[in-house]
Amino acid sequence: MQWQEVCEHPSLQNLPFKVELNERGQILMSPVKVYHSAFQGKISRLLPDHGVILPECAITTTKGTKVADIAWCTEQRFGVIQHETECSIAPELCIEVTSSSNTKMEIEEKKQLYFTAGAIEFWVCYEDGDIKFFDTSGELNKSNLMPNFPNKIRVIG
Questions:
Q1: Which domains can be identified in the chain, with CATH numbers?
Q2: Which of 115, 95, 106, 110 shows the shortest CA–CA distance to 42?
Q3: CA 20 to 30 Å from 80, out of 23, 52, 88, 117?
Q4: pLDDT digits (tens, 9 = 90+) for 51-97
Q5: Looking at the DSSP assignment, which residues form a beta bridge with residue 127?
Q6: Beta bridge partners of 96
Q7: What is the dihedral of CA 111, 112, 113, 115, to 10 degrees?
Q8: Confidence band (pLDDT; 50, 70, 90) for 155?
């Protein structure tokens, strides 16, 4: 199955799951909990006004279509991807909010796939609100793209 088919298939609309494709075109679905959505909202509100925020952003990778929980890109990159069904080049920043079902290996693989697809930074938000920042050289003390972004967030407060 191709991503365009997933987007257009009537039985796959409005699912309470995150949908992705693996490298064989098989659909992968992951249920999300309320806290997951709350962290997505909070992170999105904390991202800068310049650039474009992309919740649930589909990205073409070497292992199928992956969906970043949140992505951020410059207006220049958005000009390249804005009319695509899935991003042919990853936004500069890709963020994953972990769930209890995520494995460390899965998050590591997504990080590498997004970097290979053109991301500059990858962030991980853990269930306790801790945020880790990465670029292609490894873990960062703080984001280079957004140095004032906190390394821990709370949904309330």
A1: 32-140 (3.90.1570.10)
A2: 95
A3: 23
A4: 999 998 999 999 998 999 999 999 999 999 999 999 999 999 999 99
A5: none
A6: 124
A7: 90
A8: confident
- The letter for the amino acid at 20 is E
Give the integer Cα–Cα distance in Å for 75 and 72.
10
Distance CA 92, CA 81 (A): 12
- 5-34 pLDDT, tens digit per residue, is 655 666 655 555 565 556 766 555 565 666
Q: Which of 67, 56, 70, 60 is nearest to 28 (CA)?
A: 67
Alpha carbon separation from 58 to 3, 50, 53, 70, 111 (Å, rounded) = 9, 21, 13, 10, 14
